[in-house]
Description:
Elements: H1 17-35, H2 39-52, H3 58-71, H4 74-84, H5 90-106, H6 110-123, H7 128-246, H8 250-276
Amino acid sequence: MKISFLFILIALLSNDPKEIIKINSLKKEAEEAxxxxxxxxxxxxxxxxxxxxxxxxxxxxxxxxHAYYHLGDTSGAKLNYGRVGAARSKKLRSIAYQQLxxxxxxxxxxxxxxxxxxxxxxxxxxxxxxxxxxxxxxKLLEEKKKQEQQNQDNKDQDQQDQDQQDQDQxxxxxxxxxxxxxxxxxxxxxxxxxxxxxxxxENQEQSEQEKEEEQQKEQKQENGEEEEQQQExxxxxxxxxxxxxxxxSEEKARQLLEAMKQxxxxxxxxxxxxxxxxxxxxxxDW
Length: 286
C-alpha cells in the first residue's frame, strides 16, 4: 500500500510569529524523521504538535496514523485514522479509510475491509490505490464465500455419504443378523431331523437286534428239541441194535421189561408185609 503524505499549510489562529516558527519547525522535523524511517521520533514530534501545542490538523493526525502503522502499533494507527474519517478534506478521508481497509484485510476481516475501502472510493473516486484495493478485496471475498460454499457443499456431501454409509452398514448388519438367524434356525432344524433319524435308526437297530435274538432263541430252542429228539432217536437206535445183537425182538424185550417190572413190584410188596409182623418175644428181631 502506497502511503501518501499531503502536507499543507495550517492556518493558525495564533498571531505569535515565534509559535508559528516553532510549529513549522516541528512539522518539518516530524516529516524528515518519517521519511528517514525514524518512526518513533516522528510519532513524538506529531504528538508534541497535537497534544502539547494544541495543533488541530487532520494531516498531522493522518501522518501520526502512518507512523504508528509502520511501528506495528495497530491500535494507535486505527485511532488516528478513525479521527481523520471526519475530516473536511475528501482526499484525507479517502486515504484514512483506505488505510483502515488495508489493516482489516491484513487481519482477515474481508467484509469489514470491503466496506472501509468502499467508503474510501466514495470519498475520493480518483484514489486509484483505493479503487484497486477495493477490487482486490472484493475478489478475495467472493473467492472466500465461494470456498466456504464449496466447503459447506463438501461437508454436506460428506455427511450424506456418511449417512448413506451408516445406512448401508445398518442394512448389512440387519442382513447378516437375519442370515445368521436363518442359518441358526436351519442348523437347529437339521439337528432335530438328524436326531430324529438317529433315534429311528437306533429304534430300528434295536428292533432288528431283538428280532435277531428272538430268532436265535427260537433257533436254539429248535436245535435243542431236535438234538433231544436226535438223542432219543439215537438211544432207541442203540437199544434196537443191542437187541438185534442179542437176537431179541422189540416186542420180546418189552415183554421181558414188563415181566421184570411186575416181579419188582411183587418183591417190594412182600418186603413191606414182612416189615409189619411183630417179632417173637424173647427173641431178637433179627
